[in-house]
Design brief:
The protein is mainly alpha-helical. It folds into 3 domains: 1-31, no CATH class; 35-81, no CATH class; 119-251, no CATH class. The protein is built from 9 helices and 5 strands. The chain has helices spanning 9-21, 96-117, 122-149, 164-172, 176-183, 189-198, 206-218, 224-237, 241-244; strands at residues 36-40, 45-53, 56-58, 62-64, 69-72. It has a 3-stranded antiparallel sheet, with no helix packed on it. A hairpin with a 4-residue loop joins strand 1 and strand 2 (45-53). Helix 3 (122-149) runs antiparallel to helix 7 (206-218) and helix 7 packs antiparallel against helix 8. The protein starts with 8 loop residues before the first helix and ends in an 8-residue tail after the last helix.
């Protein structure tokens, strides 16, 4: 990486030669002035450059997530704030799968500790609210994305007829084997959506998540208003598939 205004003439000449030899391997952008924040360097606070990268979920509707990824420069005065600032600190592309496996394993360990040791009081119930809200949101978003992107025929028939893509939806949610055990070998769009919305036993179905939210709320003070919202979402999830699938994300 080359930050032109910050480099000496010899380094700029070296990069110019590399770019001329293989221009397709380089990307250029204007020099941007980015903000600094007080950063603790181990001994004292000093200004370091930072940026903020928001995440946008693009489907039939767009959703900008709350917060984002903030990255900070490791060296004083440097404007390099991404993972290329030192190979020892970077998650290299070829190492990303072991890194992600480690993240999953540590997350599962934390989940096991919570389930095995945390008393079933308000703290635990709030954790369950977050867990099952997130699960229901993910399930409905996947349904929404698939129904929005499936092709329609000239008669504008329901996109649920295109069954092949629903195999991937089931696999994304870890639901493939459970669906086949309960609904048979045929993967049909309408049955998949019905399973993901209404099954009472699959932990990522909307019905299961709503039941879990109901149970958690009843152990918390003043649950009346959120319980009404959960019950309303349940009624919508039980509605006709043709109407419900197209507005899946609106249930939760």
């Amino acid at each position: 990486m080359l930050i032109g205004p910050h480099e000496d003439p010899e380094t700029r000449a070296l990069f110019a030669e590399r770019i001329q030899r293989d221009p397709a391997s380089f990307v250029a952008q204007p020099m941007l002035e980015i903000s600094t924040v007080p950063t603790f360097n181990g001994e004292a606070l000093e200004p370091r450059h930072v940026d903020l990268r928001p995440f946008i979920v693009q489907a039939a509707r767009s959703h900008v997530t709350t917060g984002g990824l903030s990255r900070v420069s490791r060296a004083p005065g440097s404007v390099i704030v991404n993972s290329s600032q030192g190979a020892e600190a970077a998650i290299q592309r070829q190492h990303r799968y072991p890194f992600l496996r480690a993240v999953i394993e540590h997350t599962q360990a934390i989940d096991g500790i919570i389930n095995g040791t945390l008393a079933r009081g308000p703290t635990y119930q709030f954790l369950m609210l977050g867990r099952f809200l997130e699960r229901a949101d993910m399930t409905t978003r996947l349904i929404e994305v698939r129904t929005a992107t499936l092709p329609r025929d000239t008669l504008d028939a329901s996109p649920l007829r295109d069954d092949a893509v629903w195999v991937n939806v089931l696999r994304y949610l870890g639901a493939y084997s459970q669906y086949r055990q309960q609904r048979g070998l045929a993967i049909q769009g309408g049955k998949v959506v019905d399973f993901l919305l209404r099954d009472e036993r699959f932990p990522r179905s909307v019905r299961f998540c709503l039941d879990a939210l109901d149970a958690a709320l009843r152990d918390l003070p003043a649950p009346a208003e959120p319980l009404e919202a959960v019950e309303a979402a349940g009624r919508r999830a039980q509605g006709p598939l043709a109407a419900g699938a197209a507005t899946a994300a609106g249930w939760c």
